[in-house]
Amino acid sequence: MFRPSQRIKYQPDPGKSPSAGRAEASRLFSPVSYHNLHLEQRTWVPAMVPWRASEEGCVTDDILDWYERMAYGRPGALVVEATGIRDIASGPLLRMGHDRYIPGLKELADVVRHASEGHTRLFIQIIDFLSIRRRPQRGKFLGRFLEITPSHCRLLRAQGCDEAEIRAQLLALSDQELQDILTAREFESLTRGYRERVTDTHLPHIRALPGILPDLFAAAAGRAQQAGMDGVELHYAHAYTMASFLSARNRRDDGYGGAKEQRIRLPLEVYRQVRQVVGDDYTVGCRYLSDDCIDNGSDVEDAKFFGIEFARAGMDFLSLSRGGKFEDAAQPKPGWSAYPYTGLSGYECMPSYISDEQGPFGRNFEPASAVRAAIRQAGFATPLVVAGGIHGFEQAEAVLANGIADIVGAARQSLADPDWFLKLYLGCGDEINVCQYTNSCEGLDQKHKQVTCKLWDRTCLDQAGVKLSKDGRRRLTAPVWKRTPRRT
Ligand SMILES: Cc1cc2nc3c(=O)[nH]c(=O)nc-3n(C[C@H](O)[C@H](O)[C@H](O)COP(=O)(O)O)c2cc1C
User: Fold this and answer.
1) Which residue of 151, 328, 337, 428 could cross-link 343, Cys pair, CB 3.0 to 4.6 Å?
2) 49 alpha carbon to ligand 1 midpoint, in Å?
3) What is the distance in A from the centroid of ligand 1 to the CA of 411?
4) Is the shortest distance between the CB of 287 and ligand 1 below 6 Å?
5) CA of 169 to the centre of ligand 1 (A)
6) Residues 81, 91: contact at Cβ < 8 Å?
7) Residue 486 carries which DSSP code?
8) pLDDT value for 102
């Protein structure tokens, strides 16, 4: 896990909470309208995977409970977790690669509409990701999985030896010695687990991505629309396929890599195909990165260009995150997969309270402001969402007043207290559970455990009707606030 060298400990500082009157008159609680995006207030809960889908990727009762609980807080927008567009097994992560997923998603949309009394717009984040395998046991990898090539034989000076002898020789080498015998990718597969990249164009299915992804995204978006979701967020951020196309590390030679104009080609083709299917009056935006935060990755100049082009193409909103890449992820333990939030780029994505002199709150503000200014200069009014350490009213107001963004995203703070926007709005800010940014939620995500918040997950465990996590030690949703205006 990445640790900032300075290791300065920060306390969240939510500042002064507004009276109900001040909140009512604030920017944060003013509506925003642009093309197909119409929010009652500029509050936004970004996508968060809570690890509650079924093994088949279906909506479960626990998923319904989770989003219902979020919707009681009535944010302007609530984005459903990254949901896979393919019909392939991917563990308990939501999927929508087939029409059989529509009824579950419809139930989810209905639950959110009901719980928020129609105040919250529900979007779903749609994602494609490439294959990643767990870090293998050394013996198994060298003894079985590794494909023995003439290069191994030559480098080991073992021409003429049979495969079993070569494997025995490899097994006898130290990792350092192996680095001279294996290719960089083979060594990576051994020490971190095999991971596909968009640049693996020697693999037919990777070469074919530009031909297949527009239709897959479009079909998923069509299902979201049929299910009654209010819109889709194309996941062009973090460690996944579309962000990898946008990344400056993408050197594909088929017209979809290299210069930024080529790297954005597929994301634009995906968007256009989605638009074709959902029509001109459905909300479609994307989440992408203000900076990859990795060596030789895309930076804020790329993000400005991408933002202008997405706006020009007609997207209804742009949501900016940062970092969260595989390239600098920590080495996983044998049997575990690499997790893209464990390196410096992961820190930039979800900074914790132990930080450097810049601190964990608002690390994405400066780049977001630059991206927004570039989009405005190009003549587009596309609303920008920013997230990253936002947990207080004045901080949120400053984001809007200073032109950093048009909509305020708060992920971990909304997990810590799903009613926090509502409490601010009602003048009850002193009742907010303030996120401590210890990243215990992210630690659970990393272990693929049901995500909860330690600020509430041990509260009133014996209360009637409280559902517990699989380990039986934590409640699955935040206790309901006494003033929650929920319908029964
Ligand atoms: C448990 C957890 C799951 C997350 N899952 C997603 C996801 O599915 N898609 C996404 O774009 N970001 C995801 N994120 C990142 C958040 O949306 C957000 O960008 C990040 O936490 C920084 O914002 P914050 O400081 O307000 O938490 C996740 C974050 C957490 C803590």
Assistant:
1) 328
2) 8
3) 6
4) yes
5) 45
6) no
7) -
8) 98
